[in-house]
Structure formats: structure tokens, C-alpha cells
User: What shape does this take?
Amino acid sequence: MSPALLHAVTGAFRYSGRSIAQRLLDAGQRAITLTNSDPALSPFADRIPVHRLCFDDLARLSEALRGVDVLYNTYWVRYNHRDFSFAGAVENSRRLFAAAQQAGVRRVVHLSVTNPSEDSPYEYFRGKARVERALIESGLSYAILRPAIFFGHGDVLINNIAWALRRLPVFGLFGDGAYRLQPIYIEDLARLAVEVGAIEENVTLNAIGPETFRYRELVELLAAALGKRRLILPLPPGLAYALTAPLGRLLGDVIVTRAEIEALMADHWAMGGEGATDVAKAVVKICDSSHKLKLLYPDEMPLFAKIETIAKEIYRAKAVTADKAIKDQLKTWEEMGYGKLPICIAKTQYSFSTNADTKGAPDDHIINVREVRLSAGAEFVVAICGEIMTMPGLPKVPAADSIDVNAQGQIVGLF
Assistant: This one.
């Protein structure tokens, strides 16, 4: 890492932000923090200047970031509240990235979460995915880290489990406790954040620990470490939540949210289809609710018109071009009975346009369809747009470049 660079950390007085800030200081770097916490809470005395995280004042936010090389963003909310919300956190994150861009920040290291998806049944994960997309579309150099669960001084889940084990004679599991977790030590996460801040390549990494635990196993290990013999009972998730809610009100804290319980129990990342059963049920529940699904185009729309609709509505293009031979091929497939098939667009992943050098989400560009392919068995039509390699789809940097063995003899960089 270059000497004496200036770094900014959101929320440097708390948990992950505190660990990242401490590692930067230990490395001889300069740092500031953007936070709305009381400066008196700072564990760094006057070593880190404090700026307000004023999302409603873009000019002030940009000025605070002036001269910063890397912004480490830990900002997020755990649940919806009258004073904050997931939707508000997404919008605030967009403003933060816009301020960083205006200020000339070189790179953003963003802490996300494993398995974010805009199609997730959980608003927490949908919001996280939208923030990732906002960062990617900003045009800033980025590193996105996706941890599952932190552990270390000040974490939420592990400390809440330990608190309950110390004080309660019975510990209730959410369900059977057989779902899997892969927690990462907070100092390892901070080390990784600082390391990826120093590089140039855009990366998205699953920041997970080397060991996998079933939830019940993790609780049993904590109980043994605390020297507490406790009756550990599986409970229906709804009942377990109902029991924690009044306890949280008594303590003046939110111990766990419904979304956190459901996400905790959804271990499809470890068990494939079997592990995704709970997620599938949640999706079905949403589908059966009052939400109305609106398709982008009707099946009866001509194939080229479907391509134009996707290009204009999704990719913000002003027009779509194609040779007469391609349009004739599409019409032939329509005459053969394939006109009702959906369209799959194959193009660069780096831009809404077909130019990989025009990063993010530009407007009013032109998409050229250079080839179309019929996948009759899978039942869709592929439109090849711009210069793209459809197979094997290799990344710019081979994954093997990040695999190594550390000083403790552990393999790192597999995920």
C-alpha cells in the first residue's frame, strides 16, 4: 500500500468500520470517517477526523470526500423503522456513491452480504443487491465483499447467542438448527477490505470464513466455551421469533428480525436445491399475495420488437439495428411457430451498451444485433449483440491467480 494515502470509512466508530479504520491506521495510512455517531464515542481520539454522513447535502458530502483515495462503505440498516428503511438506505447509498464520484475518489470497497438478489423474497437482500448495482453503474472502481456472518468483538448474532446462553436456562433454535453458516472473523474481513482497496481490478468476492458450522453446532460450541450447560430445543421459527420479540423490547434492542431468521435458515448456497426449499416457499408465498406480475412484452409480439423492447426498457437504448438477413431469419422462425418464444440478450456484462469500455448504464446508445440463434429445445431466441465471447465466458483474471496458501498453511482465495 502506498504511504500516507487518505482513506474514508463510513461508521468507523462501530464494528466492521472500526476494524477497517484500525487496520488502516496500523498500516500508517491516514483516515477520516463519515458517521452520524457521537464523536465522543470515537475509539481513535483525534487520530481520525469526523465528518457528518449528511445524505441530504450532496455538496457537503462530496467536499468531505475530497482528496480521498479509497472509500470503505459499511453503511446499511438492519430493519425498517419509522426513522429509517431499506429503501432509504438504498437511496442514501446512491447519493454516497455520487458524492464519491464528484470528489474524485479512486475506488470504493463496499460491504454487502452473501446471496444478494433483486428477486429475493427478503427486502434486506433485495436492497443489498440494488446497492451493488448502483455502485457498479456509478463508473467508480469497486470491490464488493459479501460476508455471511461476522464474529469478533461487537458482532450482533454471536454476542446475542452468548448473552442468551449466559442468562437463560433454555436456548430455542430457529427450526431444527441443521442449516449451515460460514462466519468470518471481523479482523480477517478488515484485512481483506484493505487489501482489495489497494488494487485496481473490479472484483466481487464472497468474504466467508474457512469453516462451516451447522447452527445448532455453533450454539453448542459457544455454550461449551462459556462453560454453560443448557437445554437446546428446536422451535418453530415463528414461535422462536415471538419469544425473542418481547425480550428485545425489554432490553431496548432488536435481537433478531423475521427476515434475518428466514435468511439464516436458507442455506441453499451449501446444499443446492435441497437447501433452497425455504427460499422457494417464500417466493411462492409472495406470488400468492396481492402483488401483480407485469411481463415486459406479450408472447404475441414479433421477435425483433421484443428485442427492441428489452433494449429500450432495460438497457436504455434509443434504437436497435440489425441487417436485413437477421430480420428475415427472425420472420422465418415466426412462420415456423417460434414467434412466441422469449428473447435472451447476449452482450457485455460491463455496460448497458454493447461497448465494454462504456462502463455502467449509459443512455441513448444504439444496440446492434450481429447474430441470432434459435434454442428450440430450451425454447428461447438468443440475440448476440456487439463483440462478446459466448463460450467459455472466462473472466479477465483467472480465479487461480487469487488462490494461495497463507502462513498458517490454510488455502485462501477459493471463494
Notes: The chain has a mean pLDDT of 87.
